[in-house]
Amino acid sequence: MTKVITYGTFDLFHEGHYRLLQRAKELGDYLIVGVTTEKYDMERGKLNVVDSLMTRIENVKKSGFADEVIIEESVGQKISDVQKYHIDIFAIGSDWMGTFDYISDYCQVIYLERTKNISSTMLREQNWHIQKVGIIGTGRIANRFVPESKQVSGIDVQKVYNPNRTSAEKFAQKWEIDFYDDIEEFYRGIDSVYIASPHQTHYEYVKSALEHGKHVLCEKPMVLQKEQAELLFTYARQHNLVLFEGIKTAYCPGFEKLLGIACSGIIGTIHYIDACFTKLEDKNKRELTDKKYGGSLTELGSYCMLPIIKLFGNQYEDIRFDAVHDSKGLDIFTKVSFRYPRGAATATCGLGVKAEGRLLIAGTKGYIVAAAPWWKTTYFEVHYENPSQIDKYSERFFGDGLRYEIRDFLNVINGDDKSVFKLTRSESIAMAEIIEMFLKQEHRTE
Ligand code: C2G
Questions:
Q1: Is 93 in the pocket of ligand 1 (CB under 6 A)?
Q2: How far apart are CA 311 and CA 338, in angstroms?
Q3: Can you give the pLDDT at residue 125?
Q4: Spacing of C-alpha 442 from chain mean position
Q5: Ligand 1: which atom is nearest the Cα of residue 94?
Q6: Is residue 197's pLDDT more than 70?
């Protein structure tokens, strides 16, 4: 008798799950299905699992393919299960290609082709809709988005668009999705769009996606002008569409905790914020070759402005930019100094100069400090006048962290409005305005 085992969360049971189980069963005579517990999913960073463990087990059973259902509750369990149940074949979807090769020391490992373009047909009775997402852009961040999206239940990336057909095709092959170089065809059948194209193309893409009735999650900086941000948010609001600027820090749990503590009064009244992010970038990359839209502020400024705008607001009395330029005239290091009625703040970013990346929030009773990479907040400290008194806080941050903004985007689409406070429209608009002022000062606008 050939024994097969497979694992999964099987949340919002759909035809991708059904087909996987069907083919796994066909590989042998006896199929064991391991269903993940809530605790294990939390530990491995899977977000927004909707169905309870009991419901997920029931759905696997209802498929009729499982001869036995077990629960998966810890990381090292697969190898011990394979031995315990005398398994001949370990089967899993091709989105895990390579990940479980280590099990081949114990049994055969087979990756089954993932099912493309799942819909909500099997979910109708549950009244749940899977968000079908298309991606515009095929660069580094778009490549991070796809695996991150698989860690959020209820979303399926189905399409990619790039006017350059070859790039679109390459990306689509890698991630087993469909590609388009015709934008109208791309929009057909999807519910929302993730935009990760070069900065200067964001405005037109967001506008067109909204006009096609799609919810939009756009990479930072969403736009480079205040008026553009206002127009887009107004249009989205009037048409009941969700528009999110994807500054991942704003949505990550550690940063949320840090803001909560800053606002709690523990460090007294906040009078100074200093946020610095530098990343030495390859001189041949777009960030350091695009004379009009490249440079440190457009690239990293959103992260550094975020804690300032969140804690001090957008009513600064004065703002000053000090930029250091390379031979092409592009800012490789920029300091933005804010003056507020209640205090001062600096946002410093560098692509060609290295400095200590740090977030410091200083108040009348103490200060909060988070070392780089504070923009993926996992750890921070609160210090007081008494140097021996230090409160330490930590929080997990999974993968590339995009899953948090994806989760919040999805929650808002599904009617849970509380996530909109993580980055409000007026905060996004304020940041677009600051970038616009900087580009004007640099004589980079028409
Ligand atoms: N799957 C698929 N097609 C889809 C979606 C999922 O073939 N469109 C497959 C996955 O590759 C996996 C199974 O269905 O083999 C279950 O998917 P999930 O419920 O998303 O579980 P997953 O997070 O992949 O967990 O220990 C758990 C395992 O590592 C897999």
A1: yes
A2: 13
A3: 56
A4: 31
A5: 11
A6: yes
Give the sheet arrangement for strand 30-36, strand by strand: 68-72, 30-36, 3-8, 89-93, 108-112
How many other C-beta atoms are found inside a 10 Å radius of the C-beta of residue 102?
A: 11
Q: In this predicted structure, what is the pLDDT of residue 83?
A: 98
Whether 40 lines ligand 1, by a CB cut-off of 6 Å, is no
Map tokens 């989760």 to a residue: 407
CA distance 19 to 124: 18
Q: Is the CB of 20 under 6 A from ligand 1?
A: yes
Question: Per-residue pLDDT averaged across 313-342, rounded?
Answer: 96
Phi and psi at residue 59, in whole multiples of 5°? -65, -40
Give me ligand 1 centre to Cα 151, in Å. 10
- State the average pLDDT for the chain: 95
Angle at 312 between CA 386 and CA 402, to 5 degrees: 95
Q: How far is CA 235 from CA 45, 228, 357, in A?
A: 34, 11, 37
- What pLDDT, on a 0 to 100 scale, did the predictor assign at position 119? 77
- Ligand 1, closest atom to CA 150? 20
Main-chain phi, psi angles of 141, to 5 degrees: -75, -35
pLDDT, tens only, 2-23? 999 999 999 999 999 999 999 9
Question: Hey, what are 12's tokens?
Answer: 């919002």
What is the pLDDT, as a whole number, of residue 446? 63
- Going from the C-alpha of 76 to that of each of 71, 80, 82, 102, 299, the distances in angstroms are 13, 7, 11, 12, 40
